[in-house]
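Session log. Operator J.P. requested a structure for one protein chain; no other inputs attached. Running the standard single-chain path with token output.
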Amino acid sequence: MKKDIHPNYREVIFHDTSSDFKFMTKSTIDTNETMKWEDGNEYPLVKVEVSSASHPFYTGKKLFVDTAGRVEKFNKKYKK
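Structure written below.
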């Protein structure tokens, strides 16, 4: 195997911001944020808007996501 061509595969905390649910799994995702986990160690943190804890399919509840604000922001940014 060649050296220094593989991404860093490590434990990462994912934080669902809409339901304040956190879970740890392994990932190669790059992030600059870190967070202290229940075991006292510090791990990289990735914030997500929807996970199984807040997705309507898994919870059975309706979820309102502000997509209009994102579309307007995109149009404003890339308007010619």
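Operator note: The chain has one domain: 10-78.
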